[in-house]
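Tokens for chain A. Residues wanted.
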């Protein structure tokens, strides 16, 4: 037998042996996946409504709000006495604070431990940027969520970290 035929025969034998394994469990269609928390994706994108537009505007000191992109990350553009404010909300169902911290630190952000309603959280700020800040915390179910508030740097503005922390607090306020 030539070497090429031997390799082909051995490869076929390995392929057949590998496909002959029995897998335990019940097969379910991929579309019926319900995630680790057992929740179906029936409320897809409603996480962008975790805090009302009015609460976002009040928290950031804005007078007008416009909803922007809604998907895995939700964005709002606001206008008020502090000029334009950009607000971003994210919710990662399988995210962790450790992964969020690692990503922030990789971008050289200043990361500080904090809490939101007694839950571990982190606050992140870009170097030399007092106009923006983010707060990420453990979600009420699975994963993590985060708020990022960015004011115009050349206009007097409220503390973006306080605004991000307040939005995080409102997100976990289950008594609303």
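Reply:
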């Amino acid at each position: 037998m030539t070497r090429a035929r031997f390799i082909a025969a051995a490869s076929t034998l390995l392929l057949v042996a590998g496909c002959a394994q029995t897998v335990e469990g019940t097969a379910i269609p991929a579309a019926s996946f319900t995630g680790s928390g057992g929740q179906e994706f029936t409320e897809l994108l409603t996480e962008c409504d975790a805090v009302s537009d009015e609460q976002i505007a009040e928290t950031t000191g804005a007078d007008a709000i416009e909803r922007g992109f809604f998907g895995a990350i939700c964005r709002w553009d606001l206008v008020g006495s502090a000029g334009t404010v950009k607000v971003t909300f994210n919710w990662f169902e399988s995210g962790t604070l450790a992964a969020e911290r690692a990503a922030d630190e990789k971008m050289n952000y200043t990361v500080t431990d904090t809490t939101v309603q007694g839950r571990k959280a982190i606050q992140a700020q870009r170097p030399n940027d007092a106009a923006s800040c983010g707060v990420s915390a453990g979600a009420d179910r699975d994963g993590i969520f985060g708020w990022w508030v960015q004011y115009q740097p050349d206009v007097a503005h409220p503390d973006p970290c306080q605004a991000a922390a307040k939005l995080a607090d409102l997100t976990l306020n289950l008594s609303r």
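The helical segments are 3-19, 53-60, 97-106, 160-172. The longest strand covers residues 83-92.
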